[in-house]
Amino acid sequence: MFNAIRGFKDILPEEAPLWRRLEEAARAAARRYDFEELRAPAVERTEVFARGIGEATDIVEKEMYTFTDKGGERLTLRPEATAGMMRAVLEHGLAAGGRTARLFCVGPMFRHERPQKGRLRQFHQLDAEIYGDPGPGADAELLAYLAAFLRELDLGGLSVNLNSLGCPDCRPAFRARLVEFLNARSAALCPDCQRRLELNPLRVMDCKSEACREQVQAAPRTLENLCRDCAEHFETLQTLLSALGLDYKIEPLLVRGLDYYTRTAFEVLSGGLGAQNAVAGGGRYDGLARALGGASLPAVGFAAGLERLILLLKDKSPAAAAGPDCYLALLHPSALVPAFKLAESLRGQGLRVAADWAPGSLKSRLKKADKLGAARVFMLGEDELARGQATVRDLVSHEQGLFDLGPYL
Ligand code: HAM
Questions:
Q1: 392 near 403, Cβ under 8 Å?
Q2: Does residue 156 sit in the same domain as residue 289?
Q3: 280 - beta bridge partners?
Q4: Which strand (E) or helix (H) includes residue 404?
Q5: Which of 73, 249, 220 is nearest to 159 (CA)?
Q6: Are 35 and 87 found together in one domain?
Q7: Among 283, 316, 349, where does a domain finish?
Q8: For labelling, which of 36, 163, 228, 306 has a CA lying 20 to 30 Å from the CA of 26?
Q9: 207: Cα within 13 Å, side-chain hemisphere
Q10: Is the pLDDT reported for residue 321 higher than 80?
Q11: Which strand (E) or helix (H) includes residue 307?
Q12: Which structural domain range is residue 159 located in?
């Protein structure tokens, strides 16, 4: 017998209603905020992610499911949606010629991380992106969509952390200052960060190790080193978020784990999830289109982790699975044909019908109807059948009556 592979999880029928609720909330909010759906493939050329997310990120260095296919191409199961969606937007010209595009995507992502609560190797994201609008209005509207989606789920205890990471005009000078600061303290940094210092010094700012956290307290901040345009963008974004009544906290050490971000970066955290507490993250990435070989195309987006939202929904309202509308209890072999016809007819009327086709005792069948949580049970016994009838019992009110089986005999 086989088991599912580590980090890959079966979503069982009892969980399916919560998943539907989540996806319906995402789609309902997407419609109101005018996002259209893009269903991008789960596999892309490895280069799309290596160039898009950045060679020196944990995702690209350690976590991608990469393989060579039979044609000799290097392919990767998408670890996130943003780079592949940008590839599709550029390929199909969805935001060409100064147009904007607003797209969302729901689906599985794959990262070879160490599985734990809220962290899987196959997980699902709702991802939403606005292409072609460089202004802070797009950032604010995107965050408004994310907030509306989360509000629809009625989850409490969430907070938004916000930062600006600057742009290619102001970041190199900031990076140089940061490297100078960190080099002077490199002996005190964790081994990972000593390595990152060379390749990806910004990541040191949000390292979780106690030693690094202590060192970066006095480090230079991106927010104090923004160029005028970036500072104005961040100011206006904050004005708009306040105008919308959206709460946020400025977190100067927030840098995110993907290299494509420019200016705005944010994360939504939950108090109820333990170590893996980020339920969503995103930001602006005005350089990604060029990195993928396209014309310049500003963009901003977020992705929410659906498994983590499911954990929160489960805590709030443990799934109460609804049972079928009708259960057919066959109590005698002669019930088979009328029961089949009756089931088809009830289903044709839009009712959800369950049955066991092998005849059984009344006691066992009533027990089964109860276990299924059926609303009504049709009892097809030998005597009733001889009279062309079935007994119907409402399992909620316990009222009982006769049902004419005439058309089904
Ligand atoms: P991310 O922060 O890597 O961003 O992932 C977004 C969310 O996906 C996380 O906040 C978390 O809820 C969920 N997530 C990530 N990894 C796992 C995992 N191994 N297991 C379960 N859930 C996970 C991105 O992916 C960017 N593409 C977001 C974005 C969109 N930026 C711009 N547009």
A1: yes
A2: yes
A3: 268, 304
A4: strand 400-404
A5: 249
A6: yes
A7: 316
A8: 163
A9: 26
A10: no
A11: helix 306-316
A12: 16-170+226-316
Ligand 1, residues at Cβ distance < 6 Å:
80-82, 111, 113, 118-120, 123, 125, 127, 129, 257-258, 278-283, 285, 301-303, 305, 307-308
Percentage of the chain modeled with pLDDT above 70: 99
Give the CATH number for residue 164. 3.30.930.10
Beta-bridge partner residues of 34: none
How many CA atoms are closer than 13 Å to the CA of 30, on its beta-carbon side?
23
Counting ligand 1 atoms within 8 A of each CB, the residue from 161, 203, 258 with the most, and so the one to mutate, is 258
Asked if residue 349 and residue 306 are part of one domain, the reply reads no
- Fill in the amino acid letter for 174: F
Arithmetic mean of pLDDT, 194-204: 88
Structural domain contains residue 202:
no
How far, in Å, is the centroid of ligand 1 from the Cα of 234?
23
Q: What is the pLDDT of residue 320?
A: 61
For residue 138, the number of C-alpha atoms closer than 13 Å in the C-beta half-sphere is 25
Classify residue 182: in a domain, yes or no.
no
pLDDT of residue 216 exceeding 70, the answer is yes
Which residues, 6+ apart, have CB-to-CB distance to 320 below 8 Å? none
Alpha-helical regions (H) of 185-305: 191-199, 210-216, 228-243, 288-291
Tokens of 77: 């199961």
Compute CA 308 distance to the chain's CA centroid, rounded to the nearest angstrom: 8
Report the pLDDT value the prediction gives residue 197, as an integer from 0 to 100. 87
135 shares its domain with 279: yes
The region of weakest confidence among 173-177, 209-213, 267-271, 277-281 is 209-213
**Domain tally, the chain:** 2
| Ligand 1 atom index nearest CA of 304 | 7
Task: Please give the Cα distance from 244 to 144 (Å, whole number).
Answer: 8
Atom 23 of ligand 1 has which residue's CA nearest to it? Answer: 305
Distance 339 CA to ligand 1 centre (A): 50
**Does residue 358 sit in the same domain as residue 264?**
no
**Which residues make Cβ contacts (< 8 Å) with residue 211, sequence separation at least 6?**
188, 189, 190
Residue 118 three-state SS: coil
pLDDT tens profile 361-406: 999 999 999 999 999 999 999 999 999 999 999 999 999 999 999 9
Q: State pLDDT tens for residues 343-367.
A: 999 999 999 999 999 999 999 999 9
In angstroms, the CA 223 to CA 227 distance is 9
Residues 311 and 401 in one domain: no
